[in-house]
């Protein structure tokens, strides 16, 4: 029976996942460890409103469990040694160097974890892949653990995480399913059952699926590819709607009522972002190519190509509409996070739209309710499209949305934050240069209302 859990990686997955396990399993001690001292300090901070990750409901869960059976620490060795089960929840970004650059998943952090576990462990452990990994990664982990270990027994399980940011706590409390892949040996099945027993504390057994390791690893990549594909499919239709006079919202509703299609993930947008979709599809494409499956690779790559096109065409449309030049014009950017209810900006469409506008020498005033100034500049500077000084000169981060829009020629809505819907748009309009343009990249706002006020409107996927 698992009584002591260690989770390596206190990020967007490790933090919330372990907090919910601790909440639902008071008899299990859960220690989340990370190399990043600042992150751990923030998890241990006095002010629960300032945890390193913003997720609705997370602060309450952490407040209930921290110090009871949930602990955050940088002492990785100690937590590994004490644990019966170790979750590996470290980042697996796209490789930025060497073979597979720009496509394959970089597994260096995973390998480091495996080596550390092998070095430190003095008793039998269940090692659980929580990170999203290429199919057959468990093989490499087994090799490291079995060849450099201290003669202890390691069972490797795959337990991919399906939570979405912004709804992480609700997703974890009530998951559609939990997936556990294990070796089809007697010991492998016993280990999988022990993990099933942890989730059974709050998830109905029928929703806990067990498979072989490779199916579990590949299911995670497949789920993300299918979800992203739906977004690219509706986004492809959004462009067609705009030129034909159709309304993508109406089309989505009409097709989503077909029970074979379903209503979810049919919201047209300025493009999907987040740390997972692009990374996981590129990884899938790389794997398919490495097996010589070029048609399979090309099929999935198109999802990314369309997404890049969507972000670019949104930015070009702004430039075109503002009389083909935005140089020296002020554009208010509403929303920087990749979706609402998160402070995460990884691969956010806002970064790429802003970059295109800055290439045209626009001045940007950015407002996001949860993203801070340092993050916005870090995102822009990372692209290396222009010097840090130029970014500082052209971009202002403003804590008040009304101030951000004051004096602007146009507004671009890039994240679907609920609060944007209840702004006093008349007041905003009055403070702007005329004609005042609004480009709604999330089909969020009431265009009729905005037009009545006087705005010149554009909404993704809405033809005239
Ligand atoms: P993250 O970058 O937020 O967190 C990863 C953490 O691991 C970092 O804090 C880093 O310092 C730490 N770390 C890296 N190497 C370490 C080591 N050797 N020892 C200790 N700590 C180490 O990443 P994330 O968003 O939590 O994603 C983690 C994994 O989960 C990825 O594989 C991702 O694809 C997958 N995933 C993410 C989501 C999501 O919504 N973010 C959802 C499902 C799956
Ligand atoms: C995704 C998967 O949903 C989740 O299961 C996996 O574990 C991690 O990756 P996440 O990236 O956190 O989760 O958020 P998600 O809700 O999937 O949104 C991803 C992106 O797609 C966001 O930028 C979102 O705005 C966009 N999106 C989503 C759309 O543009 N339209 C939609 O209909 C749905």
Across the major sheet, the strand order is: 3-2-1-4-5-6-7-8
Mean pLDDT: 97
User: How much of the sequence is in beta strands?
Assistant: 5-15%
How many beta-strand segments? 14
Sum up the overall morphology in one term: globular
Number of helices: 18
Distance between the termini: 62 Å
Task: Pick out the low-confidence regions.
Answer: none
Bound chemical compounds: nicotinamide-adenine-dinucleotide, uridine-5'-diphosphate-xylopyranose
The major β-sheet equals: 8 strands, mixed
Share of helix, binned: 40-55%
Helices and strands in order:
Blueprint: E1 4-8, H1 14-24, E2 29-33, H2 37-43, H3 58-65, E3 70-73, H4 76-82, E4 85-88, H5 108-120, E5 125-129, H6 137-148, E6 154-158, H7 168-173, E7 178-182, H8 186-199, E8 208-212, H9 213-244, H10 248-256, H11 277-290, H12 294-321, E9 330-334, H13 349-359, E10 363-367, H14 373-383, H15 388-394, E11 395-397, H16 401-405, E12 410-413, H17 425-431, E13 437-440, H18 447-453, E14 456-459
Describe this structure as you would to a colleague.
This protein is an alpha/beta fold and 464 residues long. It is 45% helix and 14% strand. It has 18 helices and 14 strands. The protein has an 8-stranded mixed sheet with strand order 3-2-1-4-5-6-7-8, sandwiched between helices. Strands 11-10-9-12-13-14 form a 6-stranded parallel sheet, with helices on both faces. Strand 1, helix 1 and strand 2 form a beta-alpha-beta unit. Helix 1 (14-24) crosses helix 3 (58-65) and helix 11 (277-290) packs antiparallel against helix 12. It is globular, with a radius of gyration of 24 Å. The N and C termini lie far apart (62 Å). The mean pLDDT is 97. It binds nicotinamide-adenine-dinucleotide (NAD) and uridine-5'-diphosphate-xylopyranose (UDX).
């Amino acid at each position: 029976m698992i009584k002591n859990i260690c989770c390596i990686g206190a990020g967007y997955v490790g933090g919330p996942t372990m907090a919910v396990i601790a909440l639902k399993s008071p008899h299990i001690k859960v220690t989340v460890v990370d190399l990043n001292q600042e992150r751990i300090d923030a998890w241990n901070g006095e002010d629960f409103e300032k945890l390193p990750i913003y997720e609705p409901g997370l602060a309450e869960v952490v407040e209930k469990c921290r110090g009871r059976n949930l602990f955050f620490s940088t002492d990785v060795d100690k937590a590994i040694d004490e644990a019966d089960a170790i979750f590996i929840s470290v980042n697996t970004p796209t490789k930025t160097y060497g073979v597979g650059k720009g496509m394959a998943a970089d597994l260096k952090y995973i390998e480091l974890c495996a080596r550390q576990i092998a070095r430190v462990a003095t008793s039998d452990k269940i090692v659980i892949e929580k990170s999203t990994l290429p199919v057959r990664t468990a093989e490499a982990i087994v090799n490291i653990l079995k060849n450099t270990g201290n003669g202890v027994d390691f069972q490797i399980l795959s337990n991919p995480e399906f939570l979405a940011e912004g709804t992480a706590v609700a997703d974890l409390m009530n998951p559609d399913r939990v997936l556990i892949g294990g070796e089809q040996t007697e010991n492998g099945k016993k280990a999988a059952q022990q993990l099933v027993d942890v989730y059974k504390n709050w998830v109905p057994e029928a929703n806990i699926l067990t498979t072989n390791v490779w199916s579990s690893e590949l299911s995670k990549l497949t789920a993300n590819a299918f979800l992203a594909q739906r977004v690219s499919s509706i986004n492809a239709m959004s462009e067609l709607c705009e030129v034909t006079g159709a309304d993508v919202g109406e089309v989505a509703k009409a097709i989503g009522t077909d029970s074979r299609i379903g209503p979810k993930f049919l919201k047209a947008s300025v493009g999907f972002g987040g740390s997972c979709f692009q990374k996981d599809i590129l990884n899938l494409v790389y794997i398919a190519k490495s097996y010589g499956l070029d048609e399979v690779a090309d099929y999935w790559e198109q999802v990314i190509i369309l997404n890049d096109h969507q972000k670019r065409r949104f930015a070009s449309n702004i430039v075109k509409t503002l009389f083909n030049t935005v140089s020296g014009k002020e554009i208010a950017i509403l929303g920087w996070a990749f979706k609402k209810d998160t402070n995460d900006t990884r691969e956010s469409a806002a970064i790429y739209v802003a970059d295109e506008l800055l290439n045209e020498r626009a001045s940007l005033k950015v407002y996001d309710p949860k993203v801070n100034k340092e993050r916005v500049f870090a995102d822009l500077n990372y692209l290396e499209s222009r010097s840090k000084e130029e970014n500082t000169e052209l971009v202002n981060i403003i804590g008040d949305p009304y101030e951000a829009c004051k004096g602007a020629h146009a507004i671009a809505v890039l994240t679907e934050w609920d609060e944007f819907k209840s702004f006093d748009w008349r007041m905003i309009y009055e403070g702007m240069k005329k004609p005042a343009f609004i480009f709604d990249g999330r089909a969020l706002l009431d265009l009729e209302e905005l037009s009545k006020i006087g705005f010149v409107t554009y909404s993704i996927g809405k033809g005239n």
